């Protein structure tokens, strides 16, 4: 039995199906109070509390190990809500009056949730906490089996209606052999995280997926985009995957031109998979992950720790940190970002760093400059997102210099990292010359560049064909950027899905990129392609592609190569 | 669990300005309730200029106050260890949670 979806991590895995059903909590009909044994219900409630307490304590411990003590604190609050005298007293008296435990819990928590939801932003988050605790109690009372995502048995194929980014981030890549979901698209954040963790994944399979039974033998083929139940030998052998042997060292083309193949990192958990797959450092460290899913911004010390941890994971390779890129679709509740009609054209990236959130920018720069002076800090590079004007880059450099002067005055150790800018707007591509003159490097972010050059919303399926970096307009913007960098003695890299497509490696080498950075999972395959590419042939291919007037012609040129 | 309350005594109180950035939410709230629960005294907290005092042993009630950074609260404690409780709770609310960065501009 084979079902099709969208392959999202191009790897395959076989394992045992395990369903994750976080919200299947329908209460039975409430019986007449006279038919309820209050003592028995009280005992059930106490059992459920004990179970929930144990789970929360375990979650607290795991969060402390994986993410840090600060973030684990949320679970302390959960424990206090669980034992809250107001909640517990009300629930127990309802039980005493003949309400079954699950209804008493659902009613009282429902009331508290509604109360918090009626208040402002931060209080609404408390409502989420209460919902989380209520669901734990109800799962226990209704005997709905819970799946602890961070402690799945080895060889699990995780099946779910959908996974949130935080669900996905909890997964242990060593025990999860694959993921398949009913809904979701390739560019959803959960899919991106799965890719970074190198977990085979197929998303958007549709309702058919729900026919797969718990415990079934399942093959997830993230390259073909298929989910197979009880795969036979042939199907297992045919399972795809862009996997290639891992090459630790930096690779060169067949004629000896070195190309760095680096990894994009969006969280500390992604460092190990990146090292394991032989990445030559980090080409894009999305520093905003340090700011998401929390109550207040990370302080200088925490950011310093995160950066030095990344540097230590790649002691001999470059680590490129992108300064805070929030706004657009990345919400950060505690920053009170204004609601915008067109967030992708509004205050995001460097615009916020130089404007409303210059304080966060300064803290981040302090952490970065100090990290540059740390043990492995020589290879630190810093780049600014969403630049469209020379003034912005000049102002950013000025901020860096003023932070350096402050640190100097305080007698704190610091060093100047390499400085660069993301090329992800047409404005930046047109100004690439002037940018390269002022900076050490340019890094082309093809996802956003394609979005802005083609005027296409990357989340909108109706215009998906527009969102392809192989449109001649995008290729020419890339070419313009590379030439500008070459002419000004700056190096030029690419981070974005395009860089990780092994079918495009020859084209990118031909266009003259010095560095390609991608989700760790495709690093081995791209390295293999680099080694098989000859630069002269690649240059011809790039010239042919640049001469094309339509995307169809570009695709033909690539097919023939 | 049955908590034995000490005999009634004169309630002590203290007015404290909330220093942590998060206000009486999140971690500060959690620590506040945790600390209050360690003492035998009966403890309440509310806005200094309001009559919204609630039991400090309830996370739900304390966060429900929605007290922000910079607001002043009145903490009352009644019991043998009232003074010690107030000392600790005051220290908690007047300690910034994280090292605050200096703004040079």
UniProtKB/TrEMBL annotation, chain A:
GO cellular component, one term: cytoplasm
Keywords, alphabetical: Cytoplasm, Kinase, Magnesium, Metal-binding, Phosphotransferase system, Pyruvate, Sugar transport, Transferase, Transport
Highest taxon in the source lineage: Archaea
Cofactor: Mg(2+)
Active site feature: 189 (tele-phosphohistidine intermediate), 495 (proton donor)
Protein purpose: General (non sugar-specific) component of the phosphoenolpyruvate-dependent sugar phosphotransferase system (sugar PTS). This major carbohydrate active-transport system catalyzes the phosphorylation of incoming sugar substrates concomitantly with their translocation across the cell membrane. Enzyme I transfers the phosphoryl group from phosphoenolpyruvate (PEP) to the phosphoryl carrier protein (HPr).
Protein name: Phosphoenolpyruvate-protein phosphotransferase
Source species of the chain: Halonotius aquaticus
